[in-house]
Amino acid sequence: MTDDPIRRAVAQLRRLPGVGEKSATRLVYWLLRAKPGTAEDIAAALLHLAENVRECGLCCNLGAADPCPLCANPTRDPSVICVVEEPQDVHAFERGGEFRGRYHVLHGALSPLDGISPDSLRIRALLQRLTDGTVREVILATNPTLEGDATALYLGRLLSGIDVRVTRLAHGLSVGTEIEYADAASLARALHNRRAL
What mean pLDDT, rounded, does the chain reach? Predict the structure, then answer.
C-alpha cells in the first residue's frame, strides 16, 4: 500500500483542536488549489512559530520577545494585574482596549480530574510579582466555568494574606442577550452581581 499524501495531510490537520475530518479534508483540498507556495509559506510560518516564540519572564504570556511588548510598555499601569487562563485571553482584552494594566497568564485552570494542580500553573510566578509592593490590585479574569471559578477561588484564598485588592470579573448576561433565551446560570449570576443605578 502506498502512502496517500492527502490522507496523511488530513490526519495531521485533525490533530489541531476543533478540526474534524470534514474540516481537515476541506483545508487539504483548499491548499491543493491555492497559489503555488501557499502550503510552503504556511509550513514555514509554523516552523518559525515553534522556533521563535518564548514565554515572557514577567507575565508568562507567549510572544517573540522577553519581556513581552505589554510588560515592556512604560505606559501600562504596573499596579494592576489581570490574571487570565490562556495567552489568547490577553488578546481578547487587548481587542477591547479598556484595560491599561499588566497581565499574568496561568496557562490553564485547576482541574484535578485532568491532573492540573496549582503546581501545573504559573502561580509561583504570580506570587513573585507581588513581593515588591508595586501591585495594588489583582483582577481574577478566569473563565466562568467550573475550573475557572475553582481557580479564582483558590487564588482569592491564596492572595488573602497579601496586602493587595483582589477582584473578580463580573458575570451575568451578555450585552444584547434577551432574557428569555439566557441560560439559568447566566441569569443567576446577573441577579447576584446586580448593582445600583
Answer: 92
